[in-house]
Amino acid sequence: MDIEILHENNDMLAIDKPAGLIVHFDGRNEEPSVVDWIEEKYPDIKGVGEDWLSPQGVSVPRPGIVHRLDKTTSGVMVIAKNEKAFRHLKEQFQNREAKKIYDALVYGHPKEDSGVIEAEIGRTKKKPRKWIATFAHGKTRAAITEWEVLGRYADSESGEEVAHIQLEPKTGRTHQIRVHLKAIHHPIVCDHIYAVYKKCILGFERPALHARSLTLRLPSGETQVFEAPLPEDFLIALQKIRA
What we know:
Blueprint: E1 4-8, E2 12-17, H1 34-41, E3 52-53, E4 59-60, E5 74-80, H2 83-94, E6 99-107, E7 114-123, E8 131-134, E9 142-154, E10 161-169, H3 176-183, E11 209-217, E12 223-227, H4 232-242
Parallel strand pairs: 5-11
Antiparallel strand pairs: 1-2, 2-5, 3-4, 6-10, 6-11, 7-8, 7-9, 9-10, 11-12
């Protein structure tokens, strides 16, 4: 399994997770994961962190895993090498101190150049159940996503308008960016869950979402920015629509 290491020290490492790779076993389907790679390359990390209890009641080991990315999302992830570093890094995610920047290609052109989405995220009642955003205040906690348009384009083949958007989620809910973009009627290109009636365009076979950068305070006290370059499918798509 080939995973690029962006940074490494005695306490943690930052990796560039490729799209299509799950972070850890989901309790149902056996497939390669980031955890498999950790256990092979860094056996000393075993036991660091917290296990995850799946909906099926399976206790899943997650050595060093501080946060997660969706299987289909590429980009920056950090992994703790020891328990002290794990607690230090995890606390920053829980306290909203970690700064996360994402790139997305979305259907349509937003009317504004930037904005803030503040909407609660909950589960739908219909099956298959998925996440949904609501702007009405209720029992669920509001999630916050800031966004800015980086470019407005059109796909010459489909005629579909496309925007390149930078996003900064201030909270960390499941599928937050994907759900929020659907809520403002600009779902992510090729999102098989939240843009189910849209055709995949620009050569994408997965949601066009990439975790570009992550800013954290290291256990040493130093603040550092970790960056993952845009993957090949993004670069090809942007080159195509910019032409």
